[in-house]
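Exercise 7b. Backbone tokens:
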């Protein structure tokens, strides 16, 4: 891997770990954490930390593998097209399959990630049009004043 791919992998993994840790913290608040009794909060803290690390590691693996495989694919193929993201998505989905211990889950997640990556490439990484809300594509809202 080149230095550029290494930095993309590291950045994606770090961002994935941070986001996954937040998801893990939220998930810990919704799960049955050990009750804090007799001024002993350590069991709840350790369970929350474990859930944060687990979710953070999964998101880091998915993000790092996606960006790493797509970058290496671009280097090997010598082309910057949507297939690189498809390969990255297929590889990243296998993390979900390994965590769930299911080949079908891994294939399904890989296909879903690949389709999402291809759709994002096809849309030019944009969710809405160029002009935003005042582009004339949507009719203006009509306001009717209250009458007394």
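Sequence design result:
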């Amino acid at each position: 891997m080149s230095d550029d791919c290494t930095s993309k992998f590291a950045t994606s993994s770090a961002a994935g770990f941070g986001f996954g840790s937040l998801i893990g913290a939220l998930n810990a608040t919704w799960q049955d954490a050990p009750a804090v009794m007799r001024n002993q909060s350590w069991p709840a803290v350790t369970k929350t930390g474990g859930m944060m690390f687990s979710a953070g590691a999964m998101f880091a693996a998915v993000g790092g593998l996606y960006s790493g495989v797509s970058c290496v694919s671009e280097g090997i193929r010598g082309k910057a097209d949507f297939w690189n993201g498809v390969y990255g998505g297929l590889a990243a989905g296998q993390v979900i399959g390994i965590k769930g211990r299911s080949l079908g889950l891994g294939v399904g997640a890989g296909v879903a990630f690949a389709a999402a990556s291809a759709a994002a490439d096809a849309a030019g990484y944009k969710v809405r049009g160029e002009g935003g809300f005042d582009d004339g594509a949507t009719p203006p809202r009509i306001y009717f004043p209250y009458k007394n």
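Instructor comment: The chain has a mean pLDDT of 86. The helical segments are 3-30, 42-77, 82-100, 103-122.
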